[in-house]
């Protein structure tokens, strides 16, 4: 059985939910969903406050996401091959178009030349 999470409305926590079959005589008529933390019962899937992947508890907020990606400081990162105008990506490898040798986006290079228009994820300005 696949474990599911709910945002339990009874105890207000995110909990794993347990399903129990409901029988009418010998015929299975449905399932009830039970909060494993407080035991609240939900009579049907429609009534169960399932936690969706995009509705996770707010452990991370949007401000945390860019920080998690900033392994390098801006200064360092912008001297990496990935930011260089000579950096060539094709389906087989990544290479430096200037030295014509294989390289990594994170390599630092003495021949670095910044790309003419570095892309920023969050700004769609038309600065020129
Ligand atoms: Zn609960």
Shape: rod-shaped
Total number of strands: 7
**What percentage of residues falls in helices of 4 or more residues?**
under 10%
Order of helices and strands: EEEEHHEEE
Name the bound molecules.
zinc ion
Biggest sheet strand line-up: 1-2-3-4
Range of strand content: 25-35%
Low-confidence runs (pLDDT<50, min 5 residues)?
none
What count of domains describes the coordinates?
Answer: 2
- What is the overall pLDDT average? 78
* Major β-sheet profile: 4 strands, antiparallel
CA-based gyration radius: 26 Å
Q: What structural category do the secondary elements indicate?
A: mainly beta
- Please report the distance between the alpha carbons of the first and last residues: 56 Å
Per DSSP, the total helix count is: 2
């Amino acid at each position: 059985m696949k474990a599911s999470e709910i945002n339990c409305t009874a105890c207000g926590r995110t909990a794993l939910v347990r399903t129990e079959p409901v029988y009418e005589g010998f015929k299975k008529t449905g399932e009830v969903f039970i909060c494993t933390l407080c035991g609240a019962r939900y009579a049907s899937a429609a009534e169960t406050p399932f936690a969706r992947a995009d509705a996770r508890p707010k452990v991370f907020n949007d401000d945390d996401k860019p920080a998690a990606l900033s392994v390098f400081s801006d200064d360092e990162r912008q001297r990496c091959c990935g930011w260089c105008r000579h950096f060539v990506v094709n389906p087989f490898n990544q290479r430096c178009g200037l030295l014509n040798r294989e390289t990594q986006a994170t390599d630092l290079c003495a021949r670095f030349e910044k790309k003419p228009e570095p892309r920023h994820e969050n700004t769609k300005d038309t600065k020129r």
